[in-house]
Amino acid sequence: MPEQTNGHINGNGNSADRPREPIVSPYQPKYADPMSNVSSFKIIESTLREGEQFANAFFDTEKKIEIAKALDEIGVDYLELTSPMASEQSRQDCTAIANLGLKAKILTHIRCHMDDAKVAISTGVDGLDVVIGTSSYLREFSHGKDMDYITAKAIEVISFIKESGLEVRFSTEDSFRSDLVDLLSIYKAVDKIGVNRVGIADTVGCANPRQVYELVKTLRGVVSCDIECHFHNDTGCAIANAYAALEAGATHIDTSVLGIGERNGITPLGGLFARMYTGDKEYVKNKYNLHKLRDVENIVAEAVEVTVPFNNYITGYCAFTHKAGIHAKAILNNPSTYEILKPEDFGMTRYVSIGHRLTGWNAVKNRVEQLNLDLTDEDAKAVTQKIKALADAHGALSLDMVDGLLKKFHEAKEEGTHKEVLKNIESPAQITV
């Protein structure tokens, strides 16, 4: 077989420079898109605002502070809090978190209304996120205002906030069901008076990545300020939409821990990390403390009385579990064969499951080596066949059972009775650990 170039495999298949890192895709663009912010995005973490709208959520002040500190340890750029107009306790909580001295900037989310702005400013936050609905649905059935009123009110409120020296974002609500001319007109108006960011919100989760890319790209050509995006996950596109938005020139993405929020929630923090890690691993690793992700997810999961899903991005207990024999062999040779994320970069570990009917002898042999047992390849193959037979008849074996079987076989081999031992074991109950 002729030698392959680019550091892949030479004639003997043992190239010293064989790639060890995950190759994301051979279909990546050869040159970076000059509009893309995949390597320079910021996170607005909204667990303490959007996340409070989750069905099970009720965070007291102590829990909000614990979550805020945990997110700050990860290194998120902003923390977004529930409007101080929601309740008196919400106002007090805004003040308390704004006074913690965290590295993250503290924002609160308000309606496009002067009374809201005045109260929010008094809490000591670093910035205000202003929002008003612009779709025909919300204009008719929510606030009942036309676009002329919305534009005038936005300019009034934004100007007042800017005079107070705070950062300000203006977002339309239900952006993807709003008229494009209306959107671009109001974004252009607020950009002209110096808003820090404009926001696009897929409030009902109806958008797809292609629609997102086109809208953000169009908006990028109209405004000079930053662009923030907020994606709901009703149709399962939140993470993909966030990535597409950054490719098109967006600068900020809203997230929540475990994706909790109104209905099915929004872009999950861990899911965004997983996706962006494949876009620019070094940027994500160097900017954010990825090892802290599991801690904050456990805090939030306990607080809202849910379990972290088995298939959760990065931290789910199956995320780095390998079962099929062909997968296990490749993983043991080079984890990048079946892992695009490196578990150690997130403080996680991989697990090769071996006590089932799909197991392969290479995985069993690896366990033999971990246990420092003196068994040959043929021995490992023989034990593997017994594991498969037991699993077929009785279901998967635990790792302790597999270890017990290997040790029992090893002891019997020293006495020359190992073949009989395997033959006589007909159920896991006969394995003594």
Query: Could you name the CATH homologous superfamily of the largest domain?
Result: Aldolase class I
Q: Which percent bin holds the helix content?
A: 40-55%
Strand order of the largest sheet: 1-2-3-4-5-6-7-8
How many E-type strands?
Answer: 10
Largest sheet, described in full?
8 strands, parallel, barrel
* Termini Cα gap: 48 Å
Name given to the CATH architecture of the largest domain:
Alpha-Beta Barrel
The shape, in one word, is elongated
In percent terms, what proportion of residues is strand?
Answer: 5-15%
Structural class: alpha/beta
Number of helical stretches of at least 4 residues = 16
Number of domains: 2
Please give the CATH class of the largest domain: Alpha Beta
Q: Report the uncertain regions.
A: 1-16
CATH topology group of the largest domain? TIM Barrel
Mean pLDDT: 88
Q: How large, in whole angstroms, is the Cα Rg? A: 27 Å
In sequence order, what are the helices and strands, one letter per element?
EHEHEHEHHEHEHEHEHHHEHEHHHH
Catalytic activity: acetyl-CoA + 2-oxoglutarate + H2O = (2R)-homocitrate + CoA + H(+)
EC number: 2.3.3.14
Domain Pyruvate carboxyltransferase: 41-294
InterPro entries: 2-IPM_HCS-like, AIPM/Hcit_synth_CS, Aldolase_TIM, DRE_TIM_HCS_fun_bact, Homocitrate_synth, LeuA/HCS_post-cat, PYR_CT
